[in-house]
From TrEMBL:
Gene3D superfamilies: Rhodopsin 7-helix transmembrane proteins. Residues 15-270 form the G-protein coupled receptors family 1 profile domain. Keywords: Cell membrane, G-protein coupled receptor, Membrane, Olfaction, Receptor, Sensory transduction, Transducer, Transmembrane, Transmembrane helix. Belongs to the G-protein coupled receptor 1 family. It is found in: Cell membrane. The chain crosses the membrane at residues 6-23, 35-60, 66-92, 170-200, 212-233, 253-272. CDD domains: 7tmA_OR. This is Olfactory receptor. The lineage of its organism: Eukaryota, Metazoa, Chordata, Craniata, Vertebrata. Pfam families: 7tm_4. It comes from Staurois parvus.
Amino acid sequence: MLVIFLIIFLMTVVGNSLIILAVRINCKLQTPMYFFLSNLSVLEMCYTSITIPNIVFSLARGTNVISFNGCIIQVYLFTLCATTECILLACMACDRYVAICRPLHYTVIINRVVCLCLAALAWLSGILNATINTVVTAGLWFCGANSIERLYCEVQPLIRLSCSDTHINYILVTLSGAVFGATCLIFILTSYVFILVTIFKIPSRSSRKKTFSTCASHITVVVLYFGALIFMYLLPNNGSSEKKTSSQKIDSIISMIYAIMIPMLNPIIYSFRNQQIIGALKNTILLFQKKGFD
């Protein structure tokens, strides 16, 4: 298991780093879509750095114990990343909507300033949401069991362990999910309804296919990420103790998918059948090989 997690960590860091470098040094990729993709790649590396090093260290020691302060830091960083990713995916949907539905106004609407503002909004929203939820969670009193059924610390499992009144915590978690999760998902779905309507109006079949292909990678990531979140947070955990145990195990598996597997898969998804990215990645690798020989 230790080797597997190390491989996943290396693949995630290398894959996302190559995406960032390719976008950075290739003039053809200096567009809003790839700007947001670079932000997403940075975020995916943060996700992996929060979870996998601690998992690897725990496996090496033969114990999965983490200090309370370490757990709270994980909660903060993980909440920050989850919030930011929801908004970034919504920004990417907005970019695709303008590019396909209002192509003549694209450079005016999605300009450099707008891109920077949207990226700043995503990261600052993540910081704000993480700070509020983490401060309130850190103030809880824990007097009973101190074990969570996940590979890392997150807000909801900690709330379930607390002996304090968690009414305010659940309100904050619900508001957070509604504002940053449900709202972003509704925005993305609405954008793609208009995008699909516009694509179906294109007379040429080859043009429809080419236009839709620019959205395929983003749609795949949205389905994987929000699908995992919905499955995890809408999964009922009431009933018998056996059902609760089974639910917790499934919850742990799904949380590992969206926190560890998706960050590793994102570079592959965005590179698959994207000739611009593939070409840029090849040029980036050749450039480093040339520098190495020099």
